[in-house]
C-alpha cells in the first residue's frame, strides 16, 4: 500500500453499510499509508439540492468521518469542489470515455430508470468524474464497497485508453479494494435482497450513525428474519439472505468469525440472537455518535480543516493534471 484514496457522497446520513464497507476500513488504512478522503459534493450535483442544505451536508459528513476515526492530522480530508482539478480532469476524460461504457453502468440504469430523457447529464457523466477523482492521485488502493467496483473497473478502462491514445503513461491503473464477508455489501434490514442505502425510503432499513440506542434496538428487533433456528455452520446460511446479513454484521462489528458466533447461537432463534446484535451495534455507534454531535457544531474548525485538506490535495493533484494536459497538447509549456 503506497497511497489510499476514496470518497463518499455528502448527501444524507452515514449508515452501517458505509461504515463497514468503507469508512472503518479507511480508518484502519491510515496506519499503513498516506490517505486521501473526500466529500463528493460535485457528484451530488446530479440532483438539485438547495445551497444551504449542501453546505450543511458537506460539514456534517466531514464531522461524521472524523467522529468515525478519520484523523485530519494524518489524512488529507477535503471537499471535491474545493480542488478544481477534479472537474477539469473530468472534462478531459470526457474525450476518452465512450457513451456505450457509461450506458452499461448499473448505477445509471437503476437511477435513471425509465426516465432517461429526464435524467441529468451529470448522472450519466458521474463515473467519468469518479475516474478523474481517482486518477488524479495515482492511489495504490481505492477502498470501496462492492457497489463501486464497476466504477473502478470503468476508471481502469478510461486510464488504459487514455494512455494508449496518447502513447504515454500519464495514469496509473487503479485496483478496487473491496472488503470480505458481509461488509462488502451490507443488506437492508427489511429486505435481504436489497443493499442498505441512504436512498431507501424506509429508515427502518438501515442503522444510521445518528440513531439513538433505542432506535438501534427497535430497528434490530423489527429486522426481517426467517422462522428457522440458526445453524452451526456459516455455509448453511446460503439461501437465507436476512439471516446471513445479520450474522455477517455481528461478525464484522465484533471482529469475531461467523463460525465462532454460530457456535454460540446454534439451534437458537433470532429472539436470542437479536439482543446480542443490538448490543454490539450500540457499542460501535454510541461513541461515534457522541463525537459527531460534538464536532458537528464547530463549523469554524471543520471549515479550517477542509481548507487545509483542499490545499494539500490540490498540490498532489497538480502534476497528474498537467501531465494529462501535456499528453493532449493542451499545455504549450
Ligand atoms: P457512496 O457515497 O454511495 O458510498 C460511500 C462508500 O460506502 C460504500 N457503501 C457500502 N458498502 C457496503 N454495503 C453497503 N450497503 C454500502 N453502501 C455504501 C460504497 O461502496 C462507498 O465505498 N461514487 C461513490 C463516491 C465516490 C468515490 C469516488 C469513491 C466518488 N468518487 C472515487 C471512490 C473513489 C459513492 O457514491 O459512494
TrEMBL record:
Subcellular location: Cytoplasm
Claim: Lipid metabolism is one of the keywords in the record: no
Enzyme nomenclature, EC number: 6.1.1.2
InterPro entries assigned to the protein according to its UniProt record, in alphabetical order: aa-tRNA-synth_I_CS, aa-tRNA-synth_Ic, Rossmann-like_a/b/a_fold, Trp-tRNA-ligase, Trp-tRNA-ligase_bac-type, Trp-tRNA_synthetase
CDD domains: TrpRS_core
Subunit structure: Homodimer.
Cited PANTHER family: TRYPTOPHAN--TRNA LIGASE, MITOCHONDRIAL
Name of the featured protein: Tryptophan--tRNA ligase
Annotated organism of origin: Sphingomonas astaxanthinifaciens DSM 22298
